[in-house]
Amino acid sequence: MGKKGKRENIVVGLDIGTTKICAIVAEVSDGGVDIAGIGTHPSKGLRKGVVINIDATVESIRKAVEEAELMAGVEINSVYCGIAGSHIRGLNSHGIVAVKNREVSESDMKRVIDAARAVAIPMDREIIHVLPQEFIVDEQDGIMEPLGMSGVRLEAKVHIVTGAVTSAQNIIRCCNRTGLEVNDIVLGQLAASEAVLIPDEKELGVALADIGGGTTDLVVFSQGAVRQTAVFGLGGNHLTNDIAVGLRTPLVESEKIKTKYGCALTSMVKKEEMIEVPSVGGRRARVLSRQILAEIIEPRMEEIFTLVHREILKSGYENLIPSGVVLTGGTASLEGLPELVEQIFNLPVRRGYPSGIGGLMDVVNNPMYATGVGLVLYGRRHRSEGRFKSSDRNLFGKVAQRMKRWFSDFF
């Protein structure tokens, strides 16, 4: 298969995170998705999921994309991009229209979605996703596909995700500067849910927590649809800082200690286990008990998940997630974390590994690649269907056009 032939059916997910930038190349076919290449590079220029330095981010994206291109042996021109950050807000909305010819048509469905998305949004915010939860035809609820049904009145319940216009533009700008087109901007935790959740869990009700470096992202599914999304400005980097301060060790060493010896439950660590901690300023390394490390990690992780739990309680979905909680993102690999979250939620907890893919599976078999793999799966699904795509993204289309014009003017 030549280079040219391969490029037709290539989908690329670009996860622009606070800690790392990850490009995942996949070959899609009717049979499924095969991971062909992956490129990661430490992310410089983001804070809490938001771009704060364009040049540094562009450089990191370029490195990650080049690595992925080399591994997959293809040229990357366009990507599906993840968006995160504390500016993300999710709200539920409701729209009602009269059915024109007593039979629900595509145009009725489009009109009812437009009616549901007609909520007052400040000028500096933009709709990223309009996610239909269910349709109601003449008081009959729970309808997922109302097309062709007889009825007089059609209602739609949707979940709307909005984000700061500037954050979205900056992500598009960074990609364009690297010579990449952005096919779509996708909410990070929504992408991750594509890769790690199974349909049964979404149907029964499940919460997904994606613990990244700068933020922890939440999405709640029930009856197969998104009920709630939220972003918390705390993540793995806060943990690294806590360890650096608590053990008086450089940040680089603190990150290594966290990954190698970290544990989120003090009770799981034996008293006699010791670890070596490098000191700052050329002093001698010290030997400390691993329990001290766990005592630093546990309160921080408890704080993050108490916030997540409180958010779910506040929105009233705590009884709608019998499948429990799925943890994904880099920090999800922390030993003892599922046990700690289980104690807070009183629900089953598991780590989410990317699934539903072929090819280089072992390379991406880690919770930290969930968003990247999810972006590829999202890209594949929306290439073929794209039903709410046009209404969904007309605002972003404008942003993209504006960005293109802006760049053709300047360069």
Report how far the terminal alpha carbons are from each other: 35 Å
Identify the CATH architecture of the domain at 199-352: 2-Layer Sandwich
Output the CATH homologous superfamily of the domain at 199-352. ATPase, nucleotide binding domain
CATH class of the domain at 199-352: Alpha Beta
Q: How many E strands? A: 19
Strand order of the largest sheet: 11-6-1-2-3-19
Radius of gyration: 22 Å
Largest sheet: 6 strands, mixed
What is the arithmetic mean of pLDDT? 90
Structural class: alpha/beta
What name does the CATH topology of the domain at 199-352 carry?
Answer: Nucleotidyltransferase, domain 5
Low-pLDDT sequence parts: 1-6, 386-395
Tell me, what's the shape? globular
Number of helices: 12
- Helix content percent band: 25-40%
Q: What is the percentage of strand-forming residues?
A: 25-35%
What would you note in describing this structure?
The protein is built from twelve helices and 19 strands. The protein has 411 residues and is an alpha/beta fold. Among the domains are: 89-165, Dna Ligase, domain 1, CATH 3.30.1490; 199-352, ATPase, nucleotide binding domain (Nucleotidyltransferase, domain 5, 2-Layer Sandwich). It has a six-stranded mixed sheet with strand order 11-6-1-2-3-19, with helices on both faces. Helix 7 (236-247) packs across helix 8 (251-261) and helix 9 packs parallel to helix 10. The two termini are 35 Å apart. Mean pLDDT is 90; it is low at 1-6 and 386-395.
